[in-house]
Amino acid sequence: MEVPPIYVLYGSETGTAEELSERLYRKLIRLGYRVLALPMDEFDAEKLIEPLLCVFICSTTGQGEMPLNMRKIWRFLLRKRLPFNLLDDMQYAVFGCGDTSYVRYNWASKKLDNRLRQLGAQSFCPRGEGDEQHAQGVEGGFAYWCTHLCSALATVKTPSYPALGDSEIIPPSYSISQYISSHKSSEKPLHTRGTVPSTLQQNNRITADNHWQDVRKVVFSIPKSVSWKPGDVAILFPWNDDESVHKFLRCLKWDSFADHLVQVTSNIPEKKAPWLPNPLTVFNFVKYVISIHSIPNRTFFEYAAFFTDNDMHKERLLEFASLEGLDDYYDYVTRPRRTLLETLQEFHSVQIPFEYALDALPIIRGRQYSIANRCNQIEGKLELIIALVKYQTILKEPRQGVCSRWLFNLDQGLSFNIDILPGFLSLPYTVEKPLISVGPGTGVAPLRCLIQERVNLGLKNNVLFFGCRRESMDYLLREDWERLKDTGSLQVYCAFSRDQEKKVYVQHKIQEQEEMIYQLLHEKGGMVCVCGSSGSMPNAVRDAIAGIISKYSGEGISEGYEFLKKLEKEKRFFQETW
């Protein structure tokens, strides 16, 4: 008789919850448990009536929303007709990945925990909460929570198999077989990772050449049948440059079979293989699948320690992989943003077997960007506003974002697939109500789409508060705003923070227009949309609006914040920050 597994079920938007789930999966396997790790929506809901032991790991996206790959099962759990003893035979634990700079910190995990309890499930371990703002990120909170989880698990579940020793490695999740072929590494694969065919029309810098930040307007031509709404996002799937791929192949001594075709099959029936290019050569596998310019996670160090014959390297690798070595891992990897390729060049003795590639190495994940133009199916054009990430750390070479490195050298006319996903914009933006939009920097991208859509519908009561450093350097999309202003469709108030001695931000411009803000929100039933950095800006904007409401209503400041809560309940206040 097959031993019932522990289910590790994750809801992940950018990959963090998925990565933590895989780490927990390996930890429990090593302890002798039978474990299955799956996205929540791939779990068979019919099994919910069976005795279950589940660990849920989920992130929060939007304004307290569930990630895309757990929405189906969440909708099922919310059905009103479900009996309140449905999950009486379930024992569970929940961990949330969140960020305290967001108003609704870890709401997804909190809502899931509450709903499981309502349906009769029994929690065997207190809910854990990871915070991106923590000194060690979500990783720090998760590592300590795992210690408590394993102790609690031992009281409700007996391991099914002998625990693995420190020198024993978990078998690979995939079988990767290779065979010699006539394919050359230069042969371009069919890039079908996304579902929407696109061709790059423009990739133009829109900030001044001498400005510190390179912001791009990126335009794609797409099929005219494709549609989207304000707030929706496009997903780009970057790939590695050939020079870096060759360096990586040499590091692991895979260069001798780089042109060989490979076939990948899962060793775990429930586990799906990631997207793979075609033709699938070793070279193309590294170029399009392995994220060689991202920083290596602790999983990499855990595996790398098994594949070195250098005792000094092994000791250091194990230290970075351990709970006790979190601070050292942070100092070596996170703070300087050391890449996987750089780490392999330093730990040159590490030789990861190719069959462990998908277990030990990080894969390239899609990057999400808010769509910056309204859907016009006559044009078949999609626009993004992207700030390229480039900065200096203690390392000699400047750091670049994975997608930024790729996009910087992307040529016009190149065709590849992208994806479009629904966003979470909940404002009733199609009705005749005033809109106050706040978007410093690239936060103005989704607002452009929203404002264009409203103007197209004949709704001209639109206000924009935009912020940047200098009017002459990074006033993004200035021509668009001035054109809409000239037609009477938009009022624009700009905060150029460095153009005067005293810094001026969007919240200051909001305060300057306090009477208008009060009239639009309190008297005319207006709505607010705030987009941009998740740092101090969103709270400063909320404080400014609460202060205005308090002042003009003659109430205390607490009443101002209560008014904001009322706006949120009425879906008249929306915040999308990153």
From TrEMBL:
It catalyses: 2 oxidized [2Fe-2S]-[protein] + NADPH = 2 reduced [2Fe-2S]-[protein] + NADP(+) + H(+). Its EC number is 1.18.1.-. It is found in: Cytoplasm; Mitochondrion. NADP(+) binds at T442, S497, R498, K503, V504, Y505, V506, Q507. GO terms for biological process: iron-sulfur cluster assembly. It is an enzyme of class 1 (oxidoreductase). FAD binds at R337, R367, Q368, Y369, S370, G401, V402, C403, S404, W578. FMN binds at residues 12-17, 59-62, 97-106, 132. InterPro entries: CysJ-like_FAD-binding, FAD-bd_FR_type, Flavdoxin-like, Flavodoxin/NO_synth, Flavoprot_Pyr_Nucl_cyt_Rdtase, Flavoprotein-like_sf, FNR_nucleotide-bd, NADPH_Cyt_P450_Rdtase_alpha. Its main location: cytoplasm. The keyword Electron transport does not apply. The keyword Signal does not apply. GO terms for cellular component: cytosol; mitochondrion. Its cofactor is FAD; FMN. Residues 193-428 form the FAD-binding FR-type domain. It holds the Pfam family NAD_binding_1. Residues 6-150 form the Flavodoxin-like domain. Interacts with DRE2; as part of the cytosolic iron-sulfur (Fe-S) protein assembly (CIA) machinery. NADPH-dependent reductase which is a central component of the cytosolic iron-sulfur (Fe-S) protein assembly (CIA) machinery. Transfers electrons from NADPH via its FAD and FMN prosthetic groups to the [2Fe-2S] cluster of DRE2, another key component of the CIA machinery. In turn, this reduced cluster provides electrons for assembly of cytosolic iron-sulfur cluster proteins. Positively controls H(2)O(2)-induced cell death. In the N-terminal section; belongs to the flavodoxin family. Belongs to the NADPH-dependent diflavin oxidoreductase NDOR1 family. PANTHER family: NADPH-DEPENDENT DIFLAVIN OXIDOREDUCTASE 1 (PTHR19384:SF10), NITRIC OXIDE SYNTHASE-RELATED (PTHR19384). This is NADPH-dependent diflavin oxidoreductase 1.
